[in-house]
Specification:
It contains 7 helices and 4 strands. By secondary structure, the chain is an alpha/beta fold. It has a 4-stranded mixed β-sheet.
Length: 163
């Protein structure tokens, strides 16, 4: 008979990387989006996709600001759903994510998803980009990133974002 105390593993939550999140909203963002995107919820979604500690700013913007940033940094003259600006990946991920509220809302409706589900997916997607995941360079990378997104979304109780 052993008198040793059983060793307890740390809770899974304690093992996840930390996220220092700054959450910002542009002037043109509807109050309904601000209410949906509480800091605790956004943090929870993004931490699911983190492999290491991170310092990330998330800014939710209107169409004009989203279009301006996409034009300036990607040379594409339209507002897109999410832009990722990754600065460092090690030892701490440092990045900015910019999501365009009207584009996110339009896509959610077109894809028959809730606004919450679409924001969760795009924040996971952007967080993966901030850590070096890519989908535009080749098909293998795209399939790897997509599969990871599906697993993460299902792990949070959402459906496959690509169906």
């Amino acid at each position: 008979m052993s008198l040793k105390k059983p060793v307890r593993a740390e809770p899974v939550e304690a093992q996840r990387p930390t996220l220092d999140l700054s959450l910002q909203f542009g002037a043109a963002v509807p109050d309904s989006h601000k209410k949906l995107l509480g800091k605790a919820r956004v943090t929870r979604w993004m931490r699911m996709a983190l492999l290491r500690n991170a310092e990330i700013t998330v800014r939710i913007v209107g169409t004009a600001e989203g279009r301006q940033l996409n034009r300036e940094y990607r040379h594409k003259d339209y507002a897109t759903n999410v832009l990722t600006f990754d600065y460092t990946r090690e030892p701490v991920v440092s990045a900015d994510l910019v999501l365009c509220a009207p584009v996110v809302a339009k896509e959610a409706k077109e894809q028959d998803k809730t606004l919450e589900e679409h924001y969760a997916h795009l924040l996971v997607h952007g967080t993966l980009h901030a850590q070096g995941y890519e989908h535009e360079t080749n098909e293998v990378d795209a399939l790897e990133m997509e599969a990871l997104e599906v697993l993460l979304m299902q792990g949070m109780g959402y459906g496959n974002p690509y169906e």
